[in-house]
Amino acid sequence: AQTVTQSQPEMSVQEAETVTLSCTYDTSESDYYLFWYKQPPSRQMILVIRQEAYKQQNATENRFSVNFQKAAKSFSLKISDSQLGDAAMYFCAYSPNTGNQFYFGTGTSLTVIP
Amino acid sequence: EPEVTQTPSHQVTQMGQEVILRCVPISNHLYFYWYRQILGQKVEFLVSFYNNEISEKSEIFDDQFSVERPDGSNFTLKIRSTKLEDSAMYFCASSRKAGGPKRNIQYFGAGTRLSVL
């Protein structure tokens, strides 16, 4: 069964500092996608970054980057130069290439301290 | 950028009543989804829909639930006889998944908060 685990219910970071959010997953599939979504207080989930499992290179999107360790089934999100607007709930999600559904973690609530 | 829109943002209903939650997916998307998030819990998959039929559903999606694409733009989730435990945030999502760099990305709406009294 596919499961996604986020072991940090809450994290905080000083503005302009770097923070890393953890995510591990369990799957027997070899081809899949991993995602980080951000859910601000307005509640709409926004895609932050996506990683394709067959790509060894870690995905980056501006201040956001991932550390994808396929053998360890680990997919952490690094936010550099944190901004007040980064404060949100962050969800890690897994999607097998053969299926449609996403499997979500329980989320990490990120607070940015001015 | 195009968005998935959901209406209403908050729905209050009495236990046993039928509710219909509405979604307008992104116009060129082919796959449509419903998820729910009970307060304090994970976002859970309910159902996916493609080519006018259900392509995948979870154990949560029992006979009380149904989905429909009544026209070219709307995608609805109906709960026939609501229970207290149906209270949750319901998210609609859509994806293209037809290939290209944005395949498999699901775009989510802001959600409908359903409160069953």
Could you describe the 3D structure shown?
The complex is a heterodimer of chains A (114) and B (117). Chain A is mainly β. Helix content of chain A is 0%, strand content 53%. Chain A contains no helices and twelve strands. Chain A has strands at residues 3-5, 10-14, 19-21, 24-26, 32-39, 46-52, 60-61, 64-69, 74-79, 88-96, 103-104, 108-113. In chain A, strands 2, 5, 6, 10, 11 and 12 form a six-stranded mixed sheet that branches. A four-stranded antiparallel sheet of chain A has the order 3-9-8-7, with no helix packed on it. In chain A, a hairpin with a 4-residue loop joins strand 8 and strand 9 (74-79). Chain A is globular and about 40 Å long. Chain B contains no helices and eleven strands. Chain B has 117 residues and is mostly beta strands. Chain B is globular, with a radius of gyration of 14 Å. Chain B starts with a strand and ends with a strand. In chain B, a hairpin with a 6-residue loop joins strand 7 (65-68) and strand 8 (75-79). In chain B, 35% of the residues are buried. In chain B, strands 2, 4, 5, 6, 9, 10 and 11 form a seven-stranded mixed sheet that branches. Chain B has a four-stranded antiparallel sheet with strand order 1-3-8-7, with no helix packed on it. Classes of the chains: A mainly beta (114), B mainly beta (117). The A-B interface holds A 33, 35, 37, 42-47, 50, 91, 95, 97, 99-107 and B 3, 31, 33, 35, 41-45, 48, 50, 55-56, 58, 89, 91, 93, 97, 104-111.
Question: What are the main properties of this structure?
Answer:
heterodimer, A: 114 residues, mainly beta, 6-stranded mixed sheet, 4-stranded antiparallel sheet, globular, B: 117 residues, 7-stranded mixed sheet
